[in-house]
């Protein structure tokens, strides 16, 4: 593999930092663009070039894409509740910032961008599993922003001179996921509560299902998509295709932690989707994506990291 420079936007964040590490391990020169709004400087891997800047800052984006052959666009305000509270900020970062990156990348002759989209674009459509040919029905400003990014990805492929592949992530989890944000995902929140002997906050009855996907599997899929022939302008699901309820996940996590789970039921969360899991056939067919880490194994890795931290 060549050692040319690649860009990871959001590389100080949870998924982005794992991706940057994996790329460095493969001999790539890695540049990271992050404004540290949600990412952490401590997540930046040794050996990566760091550009501190915002997607809404055109000069910073231009610096970040200069001399880059491939970009991995993970930077976003990634929260459904936050998007409902702050829809304009979500749109500015996730839509306007994404478009700015695509335009700048085209001008800089970047060959390919892998864009991190979201399973939230499907909404509450009853068909399961979710497959890419379904008509999206986003239920939150965050989901709308990701769907807009997908549309701009197709436009960029057609008109801006850069190939963009969009990947719909499904409930990624693993080490470095922040439990302290008011918009934190369910697994890091549960980890934090278990470590303190506190009850686990469950929105609604806990019967909602999710396709929990370990971060190393997602990173592998992202890298495969960056190299896949014939994938430009297309959208792919990236997940294991195994639905697990929040209650099941809580029991598995408690087993891993060696404690008894006490549940604290709360009202359902606004914009939440009842059931979601993926048909990832297309990603397997077009670039060989397969998940390797099961839920219990992934939770063991995550719990071990949390205890060390």
Provide a quick synopsis of the model.
By secondary structure, the protein is an alpha/beta fold. It has 10 helices and 13 strands.
Features:
single chain, 309 residues, alpha/beta, Rossmann fold, UDP-galactose 4-epimerase, domain 1, 2 domains, seven-stranded parallel β-sheet, two-stranded parallel sheet, 10 helices, 40% helix
Structure report:
By secondary structure, the protein is of the alpha/beta class. It folds into two domains: 5-172 and 215-239 and 278-291, NAD(P)-binding Rossmann-like Domain (Rossmann fold, 3-Layer(aba) Sandwich), CATH 3.40.50.720; 186-209 and 243-276 and 296-308, UDP-galactose 4-epimerase, domain 1 (Alpha-Beta Complex). It contains ten helices and 13 strands. The protein has helices at residues 14-25, 58-65, 80-85, 87-107, 141-160, 186-195, 215-227, 246-257, 281-287, 295-308; strands at residues 5-9, 29-34, 49-52, 70-73, 112-118, 163-169, 172-173, 200-203, 209-210, 213-214, 235-238, 244-245, 263-266. The protein has a seven-stranded parallel beta sheet, with helices on both faces. A two-stranded parallel sheet has the order 7-10. The protein has a two-stranded parallel sheet with strand order 8-13. Helix 2 packs across helix 4 (87-107) and helix 8 (246-257) packs across helix 10.
Distance between the termini: 34 Å
Q: What is CATH's topology name of the largest domain? A: Rossmann fold
Report the top-level CATH class of the largest domain: Alpha Beta
The best one-word shape is globular
* Rg from Cα: 18 Å
The main sheet comes to: 7 strands, parallel
Low-confidence stretches: none
Strand order of the largest sheet: 3-2-1-4-5-6-11
Structural class: alpha/beta
Count of spatially separate domains: 2
Give the SSE order as H and E letters: EHEEHEHHEHEEHEEEHEEHEHH
């Amino acid at each position: 593999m060549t050692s040319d420079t690649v860009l990871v936007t959001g590389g100080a964040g949870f998924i982005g930092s794992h991706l940057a590490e994996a790329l460095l391990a493969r001999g790539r020169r890695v540049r990271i663009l992050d404004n540290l709004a949600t990412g952490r400087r401590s997540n930046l891997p040794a050996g990566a070039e760091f550009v501190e800047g915002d997607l809404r800052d055109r000069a910073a984006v231009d610096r970040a894409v200069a001399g880059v052959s491939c970009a991995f666009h993970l930077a976003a305000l990634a929260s459904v509740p936050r998007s409902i509270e702050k829809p304009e900020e979500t749109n500015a970062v996730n839509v306007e910032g994404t478009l700015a990156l695509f335009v700048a990348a085209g001008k800089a002759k970047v060959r390919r961008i892998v864009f991190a989209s979201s399973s939230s674009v499907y909404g509450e459509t009853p068909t399961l599993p979710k497959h890419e040919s379904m008509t999206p029905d986003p239920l939150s400003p965050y989901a709308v922003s990701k769907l807009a990014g997908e549309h701009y990805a197709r436009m960029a492929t057609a008109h801006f001179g850069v190939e963009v592949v969009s990947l719909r992530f499904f409930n990624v989890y693993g080490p470095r996921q922040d439990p302290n944000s008011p918009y934190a995902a369910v697994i890091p929140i549960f980890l934090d509560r278990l470590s303190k002997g506190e009850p686990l906050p469950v929105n609604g009855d806990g019967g909602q299902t999710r396709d929990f996907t370990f971060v190393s599997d997602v990173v592998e899929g992202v890298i495969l998509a960056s190299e896949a022939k014939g994938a430009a302008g297309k959208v792919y699901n990236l997940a294991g295709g195994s639905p697990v309820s929040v209650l099941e996940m809580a029991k598995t996590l408690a087993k891993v932690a060696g404690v008894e789970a006490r549940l604290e039921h709360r009202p359902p969360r606004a914009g939440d989707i009842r059931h979601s899991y993926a048909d990832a056939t297309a990603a397997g067919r077009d670039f060989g994506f397969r998940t390797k880490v099961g839920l219990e194994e992934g939770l063991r890795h995550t719990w071990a990291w949390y205890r060390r931290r």
